[in-house]
Each structure stands twice: as C-alpha cells, then as structure tokens.
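Structure ticket #2291
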Amino acid sequence: MSDRDRPQRDGRGERDTRDQRESRGQGGPRGQRGSRGQSDSGRGRRPERPGRERGDGGRRQQGPPFPDDVNASDLDPEVRRDLLTLDKANAEIVAKHLVMVSRLLLEEPALALEHARAARGRASRVGVVRETAGIAAYNAGEWQESATELRAARRITGNTALLPLIADCERGLGRPERAVEIARGDDGRALKGEDATEMRIVEAGARIDLGEPEKAVVTLQAENLKPGQVGTGPARLFYAYASALYASGRRDESVTWFMNAAAADIDDVTDAEFRLTELAGDDTPAAVDEQDVNGVDVLADSAVSAAPAAEPESPAPISVARVSAAPVSTEPAETELVSVEPAVESTAAESTAAESSAAPAKVEDETPDVAVPEAVNETVREQQSVDTDSIESVEGTADLSATSSYVAEDGAGSQALVDRYDALLLDLDGTVFAGHQALPNAVDTLDRLDIPRFFVTNNASRRPAEVAAHLRELGFDATDDLVVTSAQSGARLLSEHLAPGSRALVIGTDGLAQEVREVGIGVTRSADDRPAAVIQGHSTDTGWAQLSEAALAIRAGALWVATNVDATLPSERGLLVGNGSMVAALRNATGKEPLVAGKPAAPLMADAITRAAANAPLVVGDRLDTDIEGAYAVGIESALVLTGVSTVTDLLAAPPEQRPTYVIDDLAGMFDDIDSVRVSDQPGWKVDVDGSTVTVSGSGDEIGLVPAVAAATWAAVDAGVADPEELRIRAEGAARDKLASLGVTLVG
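Resolution: structure written out below.
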C-alpha cells in the first residue's frame, strides 16, 4: 500500500481556544505518510499473525451500528488487502468500521475511536487496524492509548514512519524528554525524507517544551528552508520555524517566516496570516513559552489524502488512511503536541549544530528592515517534494537560497561526486555489468571507493550468494551481505500480509521460492492448493503453464506480489524480455494490479538504505523508470550512467520523477567533479531551446555537456514551451561529436 493510503492524524492536539492552540496542537508529524509505503520499505520484521482472525462470522464484538449507506467496498482496495487474513464475514465488518473511522475522524472523534476499537477487537493482529486505532485515539486526545496502538502497529509492520507520531504522543503525556530521546535514537535518526522532517518538527516542539527554543531553531535549520515553495508541507515547516524563532525571542525573524508560511499556504492549513496580524498589532500571543511549532491542520496533507465522504449514489473507495481533517479540540495533560506536515526532506547527515543553542547570525534581506537567519553549517539540498509546487518568487518571502544550496566542503574548488555521499546503492545489469561481462571502468572504479557500496538488483532469479559469486567471477569484490534483491523484498512483503504458515504460489526460480520459505511462508506451484498469495519474479522457465496457474490463483482472490516490473532485461546480446512483460500478461489476463517490491517502488530501495545504514546514500543506475524513479520514491539523490537501457534521448524527455541529480558516462564518473556532472547550466556550453528544437554549441568540459542539455531542456518542457515527445536536437562542433557518440539522433 502506498503512503497515500494510511489513516491520517489530523488536528493533532489543536484546541478551540487561542491560548491552548498556541502550544503543541499542530506541530507534530503529519500523518501516516509512508505507513504502508514505509512498512513495505520494510524493517525486515514479520507481522505477528499466527493465523486467520476471528472465525465467528461477525457474531461478536458488535461495536457502534453502521448507517445504511456504509459498505465494505467503500474502503480503499489496497487497505482491504490487509484484511485478507480474516474470514470473509469478519473482514466485511472490520472494513465497515474502518470506513466509519474515516468518515467520523474529524467531526466526531470519540465515535470514530469507538469504531476503531471495535475493528481492533476483531482484527488485533492486522497492522493497519492497530494503526487506525492509534490515529483515532490521537484525535480523541487519548495519548496513552494512541502511543500503545501505534507501537503495536509498528511492531507488526516494522514501520518506523510511525515514530514521529509516537514521539508526539510522549509530548502529549508530558514527557518531552522522551520525545527527544526517540528523535535522537538510532531509529529516529535513520528516518528519511518527509518522515525525517516530521521527526525534526516534533523534536523542535519538545525542545521548546524543555525551555530550549534556540535548539529548536537549529534543529529545523537542517531542513529545506528555501522560500518560494508552495503547498502544505512548506507552509507547515515555515510556520514551525517561525514559531521556534518567536519562542527564542527573535521576533523580527519570526515575522519574516510567518510571511513565508502565509505565502506558501495556498490550502489555508495554518493560521500564519492571523499570527502576522497579531504581531503587527503588537498583540503578544498567549502561551509564548509553549509556542505551537506550526499552527497547522495536522491531517490536511497527510499521507492519506481523502476526499469527503462520497454521495451514497456513487461512493468512491475510502482508505481508512484517507481523511483530511480540521482541527480537533483536544488537550493533553499539562503539555502540548507538536504536529506539522512538511513535504520536504533532509539530504545529508543529521546536523551536529542541533546540539548547540547558539543563534545563527543575521543577514539583511533585500526587503529593508527584515532580518533573515544566515545559512547554517549543515548544507541542505534544494529539492522539491513530491507534493509541493515551486514558484520563482512570492511577494513577502525572504530568499534564503544560500541556506539550501550545495557548497563544496572546502568552500572553494572542486569535489569528486563520490565524496558527497557515505554509501552507493548500485544497480547491476546495465550499470556494473551486462550479462557475463563487466562494463568499462566498473571494476577499477569500485576498487577505488572508500565508502560502502551495495548491489541493489530488481532481478529476482538469483539469491544473494549467487549474485555475489557472479560479481566475483567478473572481478568485483563482493560478499553476500552487500547484495539486496527484489526477491528478498518481495518475500518480506508476503510476510507482512500473510500469517506465518500460509502458502504462496511462486512464479519464478527456486531461489525466489527459498526466499519465500525463509520468511515462514509455504511454497506451491499449483493454484489447486488454494494459495493465499502469488509472488512473481523473473525466470527463463516461465511460460504459458506457469502464468495460467498464477492467473487462476489471482482470480480466486490471492494477493499478488511482483518482485519487479522491468519490461526488459539487459544482456551482452541486447535487451531481453523482463519480468515486467510477464507481469503485463497477468495484468491483462486478470484485470488486477500487483504489489511491487522492486524499483521504482519503495520497498527494495528502503531495504537497501536500511542495510547500508547510511545518512546520505547515492543511487547509481542505468534506468530512469526504475533506478532513478526508485531514488525519487524514497527521497534520495541519484546518478544516471549511460551504459545501459536509458539513453540521452530518454533523459531529455524524462518526467520529473525520473530525473537524476547527476549524469555520468560510466562508473568512472564517480570521481568527476561533482558540479560538472550535476544537471545544471555548465560553463562553456550554450543550449538554446526554440519550441521543441534544442540547439547546442560551445566547447566546455565534455562531461558537463549532457547535464547542461538536460537542464535547459527540462526547463523548457516544464515551462510548457517544448514538447518532450517532439524534441529535436541540433549540435555543432565538439557537442555534435559527443552527442553522436552517445547515440543521439541529430538534425541539421
């Protein structure tokens, strides 16, 4: 299940009265963002589900009654898949309770909690049910119950994305020091992307609770404080930062950031404009010492964005995780909750500056008399989140470009690409080797690396030991533990959805079958055994007979997991038929969609990041639609190598989610100057885009040519002046020779 399909945590602790609402109410984590997406990305734990739940046919655990218009089919299909371990009658009732939670969470949180408790009574071993109970308890102000349920959900699913909300509950229980411990613990520091942002916001609120507002300011400065972004995430982050500045006594700077928050807040999820009115009138807000870290409607843009309940005539599927919410008036004992939903991500190691309470120096903004914080020591990558837009400028915002731009560590000169990161997550086919041959410069480059490298492959046909042995045969230094496969991630997905001892139909190699057995799931090759799931991976032996068995099982209701959806498989002979083509055949035969473990889906990439234990990993691969999009899915940077499937022509037409940070000819480019291979304007190269014609000239550094052309072309496509499907490339001199050598078809 994607991160959009989780129960949201709206109105976290927001109050009706101004003085109460000013403290923690809106400053905590945003919602179930990544609940399933992150649980799928996995922490390697199996759900604690010994068997099918409640065979009582729905005769017990009555719970609140349902309105006549409530149907189990209203629940999002992916959420319903989590209920497959229940008998049919019980699953129908649990689904209805979850639908009611979705409907009532905002307006009647107490009744929503009753439905959540009824669902929990029937399905206490299903992760999404426990998670929903935790969200409902949160909105009802039952902080202890919420923490208990969320911890149970995390135990079942292994989903560390719940940590920010658990920490927020600790604040609600009057234990801000415990919230800081969670944020600074190993699991809290291992969070990535939006989840890491949420955790920092909670930590900032806890710092304020503890009387450490300056530490709250520094904690938030590790995030992307680039004005000009719009959307719920930036609005909440800017509001949180403004509130932390205000709590630390830096009123002028807080005004600037409340202005930034108001400009970003196109969905009206904060009260930034009201705060500005207060500050303009010198009307000091109440409860300054417990300043709300973001004044935000917590669920407003949560991982589960759901529309209001549909009309009875044509109900749309409801994800229990899809509830947008208005503030809920609930006040925890003595302390207040922080909740915010930033949509930006941190990009490097945690800022050591968070331990210091010294305030950053000020610099003058272009607008007179407005103080703006100076860039902090921790550099932050300027990157847009998947759910935010960007604008060139917004009136009334401060420009902190320097805060978010990358700066070489020595402050000047060059830096090799590899030196920016603490681990490489390398694709195999088309990146490291092609079939039975190592690609040019691959062995030498990897031998020179001083940082860990992990081999992350969508190919599920071989086990890690076999992959490592093949790498060693080609001259690479590789051990089993350095290999992360989609077969492993696919097997883990099964373990999270099935009770131990369940049976899965395996379409794939014996290696895939063994991965399935090792997570406690039985293996069959026949639909006659009535398997609970089908897992499909690449195998050269897969044919009509095997696909037909899978089709029968899927049509009978079996969960379907695909290890990957690569349409082709690179080899020394060219592109062969990949698992994705076989998946397409089953999709066409059944009308169903599989859960996907491999790239570009998040599970495999998240497993690799967890294995690497890295703070700033770099994905390196040859496919835009798997490697690069997979990096995008988990919020980390990527480098495209031009040695495999994706071409320069593909790169120029790539949609935003498939655009790499860097482009290099082959792995030797890991030691090129980082700025020369970054997709951006490059000195010495001139790129003009007229309509859909791209004209390239100049004589700059050869390694910067493709990055320069990509940057200019994407800008034109995004501005609507070029059609990515109709691009024509003209080039002169050195540019023509280089592009032709890379297989680009040139005109003129």
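Closing remark: The first strand starts at residue 229 and ends at 230.
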